[in-house]
Predict the 3D structure of the following.
Amino acid sequence: MAINEGYDFRQTEKKWQKIWEENKTFQAKDQDDREKFYGLIEFPYPSGVGLHVGHIRAFTSIEIISRMKRMQGYNVLFPIGWDAFGLPTENFAIKTGRNPREVTDENIKTFTQQLQAMGYSFDWDRTVDTTDPDYYKWTQWIFLKLFENGLAYKDTCYVNFCENCKVVLANEESQGGVCDRCGSEVVQMEKNVWFLRIKQYSEKLLEGLNEVDFLPRIKVEQQNWIGKSTGAEVTFKIAGEEDTLVIYTTRPDTLYGATFMVIAPEHPIIDKYADKIKNIDEIYAYREEAKKKNEFERVQLVKDKTGVRIDGLRAVNPVNGSELPIFVADYVMMGYGTGAIMAVPAHDTRDYEFAKKFDLPIIEVVSGGDISEEAYTDCNDGIMVNSGILDGLTVPQAKEKIIAYLTEQGVGHQQTNYNMKDWAFNRQRYWGEPIPIIECPHCGLVGVPEEELPLRLPEVKNYKPTATGESPLSEIEEFVNCKCPKCGAPAKRETDTMPQWAGSSWYFLRYMDPHNSEALASPEALKYWGPVDWYNGGMEHVTRHLIYSRFWNKVLYELGIVPFSEPYKKRTYQGLILGEDGEKMSKSRGNVVNPTDYVDKYGADVFRTYMMFLGDYEKAVPWSSNSIIGVKRFLDKIWELQSVCTDDPGYSPAHTELMHETIKKVTEDILAMKFNTAVAAMMKAVNTIVSDKTVTKGELSDLVVLLAPYAPHICEEIWQNLGHEGILSSSNVWPTYDPAVLENRSVEIPVQVNGKLKGVIRAAKDADVEALKAQLKADERFAAFDFDAAVKTIYVPGKILNFIIR
RNA sequence: GCGGGCAUGGCGGAAUUGGCAGACGCGCAGGAUUUAGGAUCCUGUGUCCCCGACAUGUGGGUUCGACCCCCACUGCCCGCACCA
């Protein structure tokens, strides 16, 4: 397009999007000689509302990095796909009476158009869709591997259940006691459900964090979620019975201070001794009450401990033989440790409150606190007292000694515990991967034979979950009834589907070889492309998708399917974009920003650049369109530079330092995800050059290359206008800076007297003090100071010159 | 309760990690252009009693020098949570 007409983004952006598509500019080449770079974004859920600004912020970072890497000569894999199974689509289908397949296809179409209009450099030939049978065939295949290796099992226990969505939830989906999807309170329900043994991988998932480059906050949150603690299991005999009560504690050193025991309401010992417990009716009533409380209520009642003493059972302390009463209380959870604790009120706040309420003895065993006021929980300064063999020891010494003693006596041992629970894996819904399992009356649970995969979702008329909390699939007889693959007897299929997280737990592997019909991906492709070099996504997935996919990858690694144990070398995150009111964007608040409005008005280049200029990438930022005009002016300025451009292929002397400085800043800032300051540096360079009213072809070319990752369309156009051959986006043209240019230049050195700034002088970077002094004496601005009288002179070359004059 | 983070002009945010606080952008003011408005371009823009002094949530400390390090406090945000 003609330079003097001004820049028309509508025409130019379409033009280049078409050229990129036709030339397959962004196609990743398998087994190429160039160094590979695999950049990954969290593939979107194609919802009906389309792309939102959060997507743009999340995607543009890796987009910029991928574009830079391509122009640095890397073979880049930057793929896109659709995480398309899930409740919103299903609910929408139910509401409108449409087929979820149809709705999904429509949404994918919208998303594709919107993403292409952003000019993203995805390799569209590798697009995956988790709802495509060719894809979920392999999701089911991985499930079978898990099942065959004992990592998927069925068990009856209390699970999180959302009464609104009518679906079982994993712990990761019900954080804070509310449903991830609808926000309603989660209740505990006893159900027979599928679990994946993620807990068994706790230690491996923790250790793996040592070998990856994840931002610290991500590691911390995963560590918290896994929740490792070390302590001891101690066996208490039940007085007069053969049975024992095993407890877990992190403070075995306080064993002599135990004055009672507490077990969870669901503890099996209650049923076992039902006929010996005199107040069993009262205990059962308490258990029923506890069941009714959801997690939210339990937290609310933290300060108000409740419980019932078991009349008829007592436990014996293995170190001193004292008999202790046993209580049932809901502050002890069946799901953690052994579901039973020894209570040491003197040194545990919860036990202290309970003891006060029930008027139980409090025995101090660590000195240093005032137990008449509150529990003394400190482990550092105290000395053991009233503790037999432990008296006089410090807490750490006492821990070590008591564990050794318990082990020797056969009544205890060191024990590590993890908070993370096994992953509840089935959902009572239609729009998910069918679980490929058959229940045979003779053989039990049997996997669907591999050659029968994919086990397709049957077409149904009604997608509604049933009133009994069973999957809609359970009502389709042709699907349910089948033959046992082992013995041929009539059998029934599992009718629940997998959770939304299943398809996303391995999609990054499929991108490496998306059309393979023989394997989830070929070993060569996995070896060449894996692992992912840089993965960016939201903090909200750190204790969900990110931990699930690391788990699946570790299993696949151990089975020899995948050649790397950690799937992601580097993981970063983007801050949330809040509504203009500073609140989280949501439909109900009415503060949602539609990116399309801005893309239509200013173009994709301006919008992408503005999103990155908005602020610190990792921080939450309220949306504001106030300064988007500044980015438009910036792009217009660089466009206008074409009219004052000379044919000189190099840099003019006046701009050499500026160019090298800008190249360094932009290159380094992109890799550090400081996208805002890279834009600022380019603006500064352009402003300087604009005010000089002349630019060389060499300068403008390099500026355009630096800007291309942010604003690729306008840069391609200028690049072409400048007479360069080929497509900028796939050319190996990223400029490098010459450190010598930046080293040798003169610098401005602030001159201080007694720490107060008096002025600035220009000097060589490595000038010596005497030379600078001479320069100052000759400078009339500093005539008032007698530098020779300085008691002390501080000189940091290139940084500061400070005279202390009394 | 435990863990992590943040606090800088009217606004979004910079500051090479101890060395010119406020880069860059918005906004605002003045000017140019225009019949006018918009758009665009130039100049200015932390505060004040404008030589100079005071300024990075508050109070102290270390240092020639502190947004940066240390101590205490205040206010926001995030994560986990009767986790034994």
About this structure: Chain A is about 35% helix and 20% strand. The CA atoms of residues 438 and 493 of chain A lie 4 Å apart. The two ends of chain A are 68 Å apart (CA to CA). The longest strand of chain A covers residues 152-162.
